[in-house]
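Course assignment 3, question 2. Fill in each field.
Student: A.L.
Task: Predict the tertiary structure for the chain below.
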Amino acid sequence: MFTQWDLTICTFFLLTGAGTEYQGVPQQPSFHINSTVIASVVVNTSTIASVLRLALLSAICLIVGTMIGSAVGPCLLIWAACGVLATLGALCYAELGTMITKSGGEYSYLTEAFGPLLAYLYSWTTVMVLKPSSFAIITLSFAEYAANPFYPGCTPPLVVIKCLAAVAIFMIVTVNCFSVKLANYVQNFFTVAKLFIILVIVVAGMVMLARGNTENLSNAFDGTSSSIGAIGLAFYNGLWAYDGWNQLNFITEELKQPSRNLPLAILIGIPLVCVCYVLVNVAYFSVMTATELLLSPAVALTFGDRVLYPLSWIVPLFVVLSTFGSANGSCFTAGRLAYVSGREGHMVKILSYISLKRYTPSPALMFNGILAIIYIIPADINTLINYFSFAQWVFYGLTALALIVMRFTRKELHRPVKVPIVIPGLIVLVSCYLVLAPIIDKPDMEYLYCTIFIFSGLLLYYPFVHRKVNWARKLMRPITMHLQLLMEVVPPEN
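Answer field:
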């Protein structure tokens, strides 16, 4: 089975220059915020959206940078197959995003197709597990590479890796809460590191192949398991690396000309990611066998030691920088789902509030960061990936099914992009396979825990969302008020 090779190589988004248009933020008057004033202040949603408008270049980089961050597996065939599958899935999301131009991704589409209950279960699972676990995985990869140079010849202690990951989460959340512009500067700096390290590795690998080091490519797939469960888990790991093809759909309201730029960004960005993954794997195979790839805790570091010595230190340095940048980018979209679901009454209202001074969704970002720190305590990277992928592909399949359903129930909706119906049908079938095959092959308890957690949201939905019991409102009102005063946040205008 496949382990991870951690490499972040490309941009999350370019928030300056040709890719971004700043509309300007109104200056806030200087006054003391008391409980009466803060309860009556709202932030206009158009003002929030005007802080950042992503054009086509930024949209492409958002997809590429989110997808390329932490990856797994040495099999070139799996990489290519996962790239094709991610492209087909993203095309389905292109139709959905141009048909329903709301932020929130799957949440908005499930609401339109199946009603609020299924959308609530999605937001419950994603806000509480999927988004923070993804954040945790990336920061754990960052911490592993950051700690490796200090422990030559051995694996860094697990407690060191987890402490470094927690520090990274704190720093990234602080930057994103403090200022959108500061987060932009941080992201642009790490963009250079991503582009530089991928260029170094690919060029070095091509040089080694030109010297005749091709023997590893002739037997790259020896010893690969052919069981349906093993293939399913391999796709879990490979598709984790491609996860991010739906990130633009979380910020549709902030995207310039979504009917044009959303599908174009998908068609340009995802093939670019696929090419990058395959080229980097080819470069690795030029100096490492499949067994060495499997045994290496940090493949890029091993590659640097063998090919770039005595300059091998640049590989872990730039991988650390680029992985940190990828985590920073992941944090950018983390608050959007909580913001939209809170706005619709499916999450506590405080998660949908916006900083009065900085126009950032700071409550949602802080909540996501706290959960990410909790998730790095008990689990390792591979466990988190399997747990994440099982739940995520349940909702990917339901979203593709929603596209099929709305072809018949919402015929009146304008569809600037319309994919053949066989594509969402294929995504539904693949999703069923990826969910069921590993369970049938090896029925671990983690899948049962995940299922129980998803449906446990019903215990909260009926009294607090459907019935809207009065005692809950009375309980939350003073809590919300005090949190508003503490964080200086206000609700968005409906």
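Instructor remarks: Residues 116-147 form the longest helix (32 residues). The two ends are 49 Å apart (CA to CA).
Grade: pending
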